[in-house]
Amino acid sequence: MTMNRTPTVPGFPDPGHDHAPCLAGVIARAETIFERNGMRLTELRRRVLEEVASSHRAVGAYDVLDRLARKGGRRLAPISVYRALDTLVVAGLVHRLESRNAYFACHAAHPANRRQIVLACEQCGAVAEVAGSAVFEGIADAAGAAGFRMSQALVEVSGACKECHGRSS
Amino acid sequence: MTMNRTPTVPGFPDPGHDHAPCLAGVIARAETIFERNGMRLTELRRRVLEEVASSHRAVGAYDVLDRLARKGGRRLAPISVYRALDTLVVAGLVHRLESRNAYFACHAAHPANRRQIVLACEQCGAVAEVAGSAVFEGIADAAGAAGFRMSQALVEVSGACKECHGRSS
DNA sequence: GCTGGTTATGTTATAAGCTAACGCAACGGT
DNA sequence: ACCGTTGCGTTAGCTTATAACATAACCAGC
Questions:
Q1: pLDDT tens per residue, range A22-40
Q2: Interface of A with B (CB under 8 A)
Q3: Measured distance CA(A56)–CA(A124) in Å, rounded
């Protein structure tokens, strides 16, 4: 286990970073959250979470399914993975990248009312969240001015992360 | 044809508004845009556009398919509808609501570089776009600060439109 | 340790969303 | 009339997601 610098949070982690602590952090947080909310972090949920959190990329439900099948031997039904993902999403450990029908782990433990801007790299698939209070306030204002009662706002940005655009242009 | 007030643009139209001018406006704009860009507003494209623009709601591709089947007698292949939708999206006449895998007509004719906040009512399904330059600048700043080169930003807000939350609470 | 309610997962089937590949047809310029 | 381009039809298949119902695991209280 090489000594790389700790992952940059928030933002994109160093590409050569040691991911083990990231993963461990997510799992630890899962244990806390599930415990606190009286939910059960079952074997299946833990395995699904581990797959999703095994990188900083967004993965499809069927990717998770395939990976679990490769590791675990037998193949689960899609619904099983979706159920686990739903639970993890509700717990706030995993978020859904709507613009890509994919899921990514939340490595940062931001507050309950998620007001994070999601950045998704088109090249490497990495996903990062950054704070955006001002942006969300602006959205709330704009919505309010239209007589709209906002319940949730989704901000997803596509583009190139630092590594990828540094490399290719 | 009753004389209701003209549709409120931008924002949500009055629920009892006369929709005919909205629809006619979209079609007229389509003719202009297709003409200007040397594209062909074919029968199929026009019919798909009419279905999408027949309300201020977002509709799924298969809804369009079903409605055309009901009207036109024979049932198209999904791909035909998707091709038409793609063309209309490229032309800027229809937008895709990513968070719902659905499509809605653009009734407002905003400038090319679309920087609009999309408001989608969870109850009635109505969709409206409102300007959000400041919001998008904030997003660009936040992305830039993370070393991210933004190519496109998506802002979709779920909630209750004026009519719906006035009615239900 | 059995019982019974609750929660989680398995099983089966299917809905919903989307696209590849290929061929014919319609359009439009020369 | 010809031919290149664009649009559409047809067939087939993939990806994403959920409904409905059965079984299993968990756990609180007796």
A1: 999 999 999 999 999 999 9
A2: 10-12, 98-99, 117, 119, 121-122, 128, 130-132, 134-135, 138-139, 142-143, 145-162, 165
A3: 10
